[in-house]
Amino acid sequence: MDTMIETRGLTREFHTGKKTVTAVKDLDLHIAQGEMVALLGPNGAGKSTTLRMLTTLLAPTTGSATVAGHDVVTDQRAVRRAIGYIGQGNSAAHAQRAIDELVVSGQSYGLSRTQARTRAAELMESLGLSEQAKQKVMTLSGGQRRRLDIAMGLIHAPGLLFLDEPSTGLDPQNRANLQEHILDLRHRHGATVVLTTHYLDEADALAERIVVVDNGRVVADDTPAALKADHAGDRIALTFSSPGDASRAAERASAAHPAAQVTHTSRAVDIQVAGGSGIVAGLLGDYAQAGITPSTVEVARPTLDDVFLSLTGRSLREGRTDTSIDTLEEVAA
Amino acid sequence: MSAVDTHPTRTPDAPAPVSRATSPLHDTALVFVRELRPVVRDPFSVIFGIIQPLFFLGLFTPLLVASSGQSTADTLQWFVPGVIVMLALFGTSTTGANLQFEMQTGSHERTLVSPLSRSSLMIGRALKEIVPTIVQALVIVGVAVPFGFRPDLAGLVVGLVVLSVFCVGLGALSYALALAVKENQWAFWGVQQTLLFPLMLLAGILLPLQGAPGWLEALSKVNPLTYVVDAERALIEGSWNGDAVAGAAAAAITCVVGLVVGARAMRASS
Which residue range(s) make up the domain with B98? Predict the structure, then answer.
């Protein structure tokens, strides 16, 4: 497949006073045409900095990147023409009317006024914004504004779309809607999509490939399924009526599945193992033969949070305790 | 969020539009029209911008008449050109606040990712300042005429051209200030207000600078606004003299400096 994004040793440092913080460190990333990739990581991991470099908003300190075949430093306008971008803020100015911003945006990509109008009307229709077309952006609801952002990003039907934390601030209903739009864009246009998120379910639902970023580095890069299988198997949680049963059950599980991580605390046994759902039946049969009967059995699929925890030793949900890169970025930029 | 948004979820099929290269002129015109649109649709800001200068005209002219002993018509002949420059100064120097708001909400960032050239983003915005300034100036002239103000028509036209050139430069500087202080509103207004009043007072808009202490006169000589005000007075009087030329030069220099600084700030913006 053709290369859409290629970075070599991409690095970005921010300086605040005498302190240098490396937001992105030696990033080598290859994204092929048509891929749907999520950059996943906690706040301050370097996701947005990476996206800002790829969209020409920020110059790399060292290293290089080509996007849609164009260098992000020496050929910025060609990159800009080739991409669509949905940032964290609102794309349309609040003092403007929704339709005007869409049409002007289309014209800025070289569409004729007529083309831009037609395209804007189609997008507003499909995003359920037709009635709001002539409204000022500031009078739209949060969900409507976010849908307008999507329309702005799609006005020129870009072959490559970047989304920076697309669903931040959206209620669950609108978040689901947004995900449908992204998937739809993908299926209809075969567009390449790169998004950043710290929502696990979002990365899981959308991306075929997840690049886990932490402290400016890529710590894992694979499909959601492979990441989970490799880094955080299924979890089988059992409870027993007596501590004796529990410890015997734990021993038998370890013996039968040497690869499994077995932990046991008084009456509970936790078994973490790849393909765990497939071994439950055999395990219970073994317990029945040994005369042990669990009181409860629960099988949980791993989440990307488990993956992140296993990769970094920290949970994605925990706030970072060290200085956030985002804050430094604001000071330094 | 109030109501749950329900809508069909289908993006249109058409991958047809492919982005094409555009000329700097196309880009600048696009930015200019975009900037102008809210002003035209909602002319409240233009009307609001006239109120303060109207107060000066209505409440300050009688004081000038009383203290100078000249006729109202003669006083207006001297004062109206200054009021026109004042309204341009007030309106244009605050325009960066609009950009600052767009920086906060995110739309500025979106324009930076678009293929619009950085200089067209600055020049298009700055050129828009001309329109409200001219409309407001003509209203002031229209209000003053019944009280005896008699501008030389050709001079007025050229005077407005000079003022427009000055406004483009000042507008660009205001945008550059917004880009420099980023989202810090306090810093924007602090700098704007701190510079606005000395510039205005030292340009001799409200009172003539004749007889001012030497140091004050020296300061007024390095204020480009002084030359613009003198040029407006000369042109509106119908005298095509050195003052007019000096003012046109000051306006042109302000314009070039403003656009260069502004375009540079826009390029550094991220």
Answer: 24-268
| Residue B19 placed within a domain | no
Burial class (CB in 10 A: 0-12, 13-18, 19+), A71: middle
CB–CB of B1 and A83 under 8 A? no
- A3-228 folds as Rossmann fold (3.40.50)
Q: How distant is the Cα of B137 from the closest Cα of chain A, in angstroms?
A: 24
A294-298, A319-323, B57-61, B84-88 — which is least confidently predicted? A319-323
pLDDT bracket for residue B258 (50, 70, 90):
very high
- Strands (E) located in A198-319: 209-214, 217-222, 234-239, 261-265, 268-273, 296-300
- B2 falls within a domain: no
Whether residue A321 has pLDDT greater than 60:
no
User: Domain for residue B263, yes or no?
Assistant: yes
The fold adopted by the segment(s) A234-301 is Alpha-Beta Plaits (3.30.70)
Looking at the structure of chain B, the number of domains it has is 1
- Output the six-digit token pair for A82: 């080739």
Is B12 close to A107, i.e. CB distance below 8 A? no
User: Cβ A147–B5 below 8 Å, yes or no?
Assistant: yes
User: Is a pLDDT exceeding 50 seen at residue B8?
Assistant: no
Read off the pLDDT of each residue in A90-114 and give the average, rounded to a whole number: 94
Q: Which of A85, A106, A177 sits opposite B5 (nearest CB)?
A: A177
What is the predicted ipTM?
0.84
8 Å CB contact of A93 and B114: no
Any domain includes B10: no
CB-defined contacts A:B, below 8 A: 155
Of A329 and A179, the one with more pLDDT: A179
DSSP B182: T
Q: Where are the domains of chain A?
A: 3-228, 234-301
Residue in B270, B268, B263 with CA at minimum distance from that of residue B127? B263
* pLDDT 10s digits, B112-140: 999 999 999 999 999 999 999 999 999 99
Which residues in chain B are contacts of A52 at CB distance < 8 A?
Answer: 270
Q: Which residue, A216, A227, A209, A194, is CA-closest to A305?
A: A227
